Structure prediction request, 432 residues.
Amino acid sequence: MPGHTHDHEHEHRHEHGHDHGSAEDVTLRVKAIEQLLVEKGLLDPAAMEKLIDLYENRIGPRNGAKVVAKAWADPDYRARLLANSPAALAELGFTGMQGEETIVVENTADVHNMVVCTLCSCYPWPTLGLPPSWYKSPPYRSRAVKDPRGVLEEFGVSIPAETEVRVWDSNAELRYLVLPRRPEGTEGLSEDQLAELVTRNSMIGVGLPKSPAEAQS
Amino acid sequence: MNGVHDLGGRDGMGPISFEPAEPVFHEDWERRVFAMHIAMAGGGYMNIDQFRHAIERMPAADYLATSYFEHWLVAVEDGCRTAGLLDEAIATSPVTCFPSHLVEAMVFGGSPARMELDAAPAFAVGAQIRARNIHPAGHTRLPWYVRGQVGCIVAHRGAFVFPDSHAHGLGPDPRHMYSVSFTAEALWGPDARNPRDTVQLELWEPYLEKAGQPS
Prediction:
């Protein structure tokens, strides 16, 4: 019985502190509660399969890369994107859960933007998909606001002292997508070619886009 | 609550560990707990603020020692228990089974937290404000590291669901919300590495007072 499993787990935690939550325990707990909810008619397994497929295969950082490439290639789109991000993202179909109020913030020579959620793991799902583990982890969440330049250095990014590092703590229901600066030597590239240069980390603000040479190698 | 989840500015959490080419999910149970929560939320078993608060109420040592999707599992178990879904008799529960044919509508339609509010906003863009020095026992989205500090309102974003109420079954209780910019010096004093740097976040009106008032 799931209730019994949980009570046992609880006692176990009190006895052993950190020694809990083994992979087998977690797998069993998930299976127990899923089976119970399905048996009670409260959970539709087909809905779960659809959700898994959407977030594993269809909604990810390639969406955001298309947005960035279009903004680089099309000045009118860039202007719309910065003036009303949700409407401009909707033009490309990137709407929905955890992106209802996305704001695109542009990197310039004066400002470098970087995104964190110190309280949990808020992240713009429609454009970037589900967040990577490091983004959700205590080391990143604790340090991004206090030592953003140190964090950026750990990611291999050095920002000039004259440039403001602006950290966006996504503590509410607004979500942030960074529009990185277009790399040099990319004149004449198509939107598809530009999108190949856009990394997930560059859209969180902890990386820079690839150069054409880096994208080739 | 001043939980361990409120991580901004803490020291001692160790280096950031990266995994190149990281998969969306590492284990099958992670897929299942993710989809279970989203589907059950679609059926109304708890709202997003209750979900966050369920994770925040984990014992601090457990929170730090367990993985991200284990936090989700704790919240799913808590939400099901609180909604009475684990009991034998669930006939009276308002929670419904979220059907697969509505998944795309939910995922791509979203669930906006923006609301209408008749009251005028109390603060103007450009105003210097202080984040109130409050320590509520329940859920709040006012991170500890800005409490008592002076910042500048850079935008009024409209009225949004107030998590401090919504997490405790008190309805959406919409309040005006502002984007507020704090300088690194205001937050970290002389330990700020570069005084040019800033942190910007959203603060609901009940979190704010005029900068002249004592905190």
Observations:
- Confidence is low (pLDDT under 50) at residues 1-19 of chain A.
- Chain A touches chain B through 86 residues (CB under 8 Å).
- Strands of chain A lie at 102-106, 111-116, 164-169, 175-179.
